[in-house]
Amino acid sequence: MADLMRAARRVAILALVLQALIGLSACVARTGFVWGQNEVVARASDDSGDGDLAGDSNSGKLDPSFGTAGVFELDLGVYEAVNALAVMADGRIVAAGNASGSGVVMRLLPNGTLDTSFSPSGLPGGTLRWDADGRESPYPRKMLLASDGSLFVAGETGNLDFGLKHVLVDGTPDWEVYQTYQATSDEHNIAGLAFAAGGRLLLGGASSVGAVNFAVLMRRNPTDGSPDLSFGTTGIAAMPFVDIVVLAMALTGDGRILLAGSEGGAFAFLRLNADATPDATFDADGNSDGKIILDFPSVGSAYVYDVAITPEGKILYAGSEVRSTNDELVVGRLLANGAVDVTFGANGVFIMDFSASGNDGASALLVAPDGSIYAAGYAIVAAGHTALALFKLTPGGTLDATFNGTGYALADVDPSGQDQEALCIAQQADGMILVGGRGGLDGDFVVLRYFP
CA 378 to CA 361: how far, in whole Å? Predict the structure, then answer.
């Protein structure tokens, strides 16, 4: 009977994943005073005096009805961070990240307070600790939401394992699996998690041995996390011939796989067919090997941290580049064949540098249904440390000045001097923008909500 119940549950999970695929949308994750080089103050105001903020000119302002003055903050240890966000159909918000050597998954109510119906597991109600079956330091990086509210969470451990966990809607752990790609790996990371054809789970990442970087893809069955043996070799496709540090992944509408990151200090992109063979049509450089390297003049090093595919099939990327000694925020766009889209920004890129002596960068990217582009990351502020940054660009790659009056908002939730960073972004059904990351005195979990 137990076996029958487990089999029935696995069939139900697969059905829910397929349902999520069919309905998948573009919404691809302390006191909140905000300040910066231009004294940006992102506070909402009731301009019309009708008591309804939503109808006022609050674009780019923090939503005061969320958390405390627009910010949810939780301290569970040291060096905490929200790495992934998802929004449920009923408006509840799921966040995944790490704290003090453990993975943590938490769920918030729409008002930015912990949902205590989720996982009463010894932590504050609303949170679940992922200790990775005794493995070292699990770090959840990516997350997918099924239509029933259950979660697939992917990350890596200090034991050089890739990990994947399924969590039921009430926070009960269902299954978790681990994969060691190379026992001799020096470093590895999860760069992406997506639903592939048939509801299967595709994990993308990187593994390195010495100076050699491997792009790694794994495909798993959603019912129990077992390898999809029809993919690669025993469910794994590795590309040691591709010397790319993979940091981001996205799927095209027809199932091709786009990986991005850095190679030799330049922006790097690799597009593969659904079976993980190189896509020869990604050939703007004429090599037909599926790989594009963008090496801009005067750039010492460059990294892509997130990618997104537009409805027209163009490729948006976000990250940072180093000129002289400081990081600059970069958002760029490529055509479907990998060529630079010179109609975007200035010759294909938008660059933001707040200070010649400080660092700025983009960690996460979101394309809204109206074509607007949001980039979340970090930017230097007047006090000399980095704050959480949210930028809004027009579809053409210029700052949208209707957003907070400048096109960006900087949230400094710890003015005592600690660096802070936005790491993920999501959009609610009503258009509100959620940003998750690291903030607070010792690096707390933070989630902020902005008017779009």
Answer: 5
Q: Are 119 and 155 in contact (CB under 8 A)?
A: no
Tell me the pairing of strands 444-450 and 433-439: antiparallel
Dihedral class, residue 417 (left if φ above 0, else alpha if ψ from -120 to 50, else beta): left
* Rounded Cα gap, residues 182 and 184, in angstroms: 5
Q: Which domains does the chain have, with CATH numbers?
A: 2-450 (2.130.10.10)
Mean pLDDT to the nearest integer, 216-229: 95
Determine contact, residues 302/294, Cβ cutoff 8 Å.
yes
8 A C-beta contact, residue 199 and residue 21: yes
Q: How far is CA 245 from CA 146, 187, 412, in A?
A: 29, 10, 31
- The whole-angstrom separation of Cα 151 and Cα 167 is 5
Residue with the larger pLDDT of the pair 332 and 52: 332
- CA dist 366 and 334 (Å) reads 16
Q: For 324-340, write each residue's pLDDT tens digit.
A: 677 889 999 999 999 99
pLDDT at 136: 60
Mean pLDDT of 360-370: 95
Structure confidence at residue 183 (pLDDT)? 56
Per-residue pLDDT at 70: 96
Q: How far apart are CA 49 and CA 364, in angstroms?
A: 35
Residue 130 has what pLDDT?
76
Q: For the purposes of burial, counting CB atoms within 10 Å of the CB of 402, is it exposed (0-12), middle (13-18) or buried (19 or more)?
A: middle
Are 144 and 164 spatial neighbours (Cβ–Cβ below 8 Å)?
A: no
Residue 78 Cα to chain centre, angstroms: 21
DSSP-derived secondary structure for 149-188: S-EEEEEE-TTS-EEEEEE-TTS-EEEEEEE-S-TT-SEE
Q: Tokens at residue 86, please?
A: 């998802």
| Burial (0-12, 13-18, 19+ Cβ within 10 Å), 114 | middle
For residue 423, pLDDT over 80 is answered with: yes
Task: Give the residue with greater pLDDT, 280 vs 210.
Answer: 280
The tokens for 13 are: 């999970």
Write down the pLDDT at residue 134: 58
CB-neighbour burial class of residue 419 (10 A; exposed 0-12, middle 13-18, buried 19+): middle
Q: How confident is the model at residue 179 (pLDDT cuts 50, 70, 90)?
A: confident
What are the CA-CA distances from residue 154 to residues 161, 315, 432 (Å)?
Answer: 11, 24, 26
**Cβ distance 84 to 143 under 8 Å?**
yes
